[in-house]
Amino acid sequence: MGARVLVVESHPVTRWGLCRLIADQPDLDVAGETGSAQEAVKLAAALLPDVVVIGLKSPESHGLPLARLLRDRFDDLGLVILTAAEDDDVLLQAFETGVSAYVAKTAPVAEFVGAVRHAAVAASSFTAAGLAAALRRQRQAAAVTCDLSAREREVLDHLVSGESVPSIAALLHISPSTAKTYVSRVYEKLGARNRAEAVMAAVRLGLVSGSAAPGLVSA
Fold this sequence. Notes:
This protein is α/β, with parallel strands linked by helices. The protein has helices at about 10-25, 35-45, 65-75, 90-95, 110-120, 130-145, 150-160, 165-170, 175-190, 195-205, and strands at about 5-10, 30-35, 50-55, 80-85, 100-105, 125-130.
């Protein structure tokens, strides 16, 4: 008998596909499946699986809240977060939560299967394809954040929101020339030549989320 896996995924078609994929592996078995976070806790206690695969996005308390609850109750349980959100913040939160693996839904099948196998034998260690890059971006973001003054951070937020220099001046109650000076300082500290590059750098460094940048236009 292979490692026993409980699949928690709110979308029926996706859940069926995950179960089929797991069942096709010679060293893995499907212990159970559910689309409910509450039911997942009950099944984990009743079935005692080796691994729980958790879909991140759902109407209920899936993802990290469920992972935290399961980790608190079952020290040796392998936990795999499967997410549609490829976001540094979520990845690092998963790392801190104590899950065993973090996999994007866009990842190759082999990566997902490898993550499940890892979780089955090394529940307390963490694996994720983008962990090293996310940690590097976190360190870079921390350095940039420390270097930006409070006012420069406000200016950056307004730049990301798509505000023009005159609009930023009005919002911050400063002169247009002062606003332009702050914008230039932000560009310099982010290594950017224009608004588009500044916004992209801010997103890359995790200073803002990609959804916060409605458009990229030069200033």
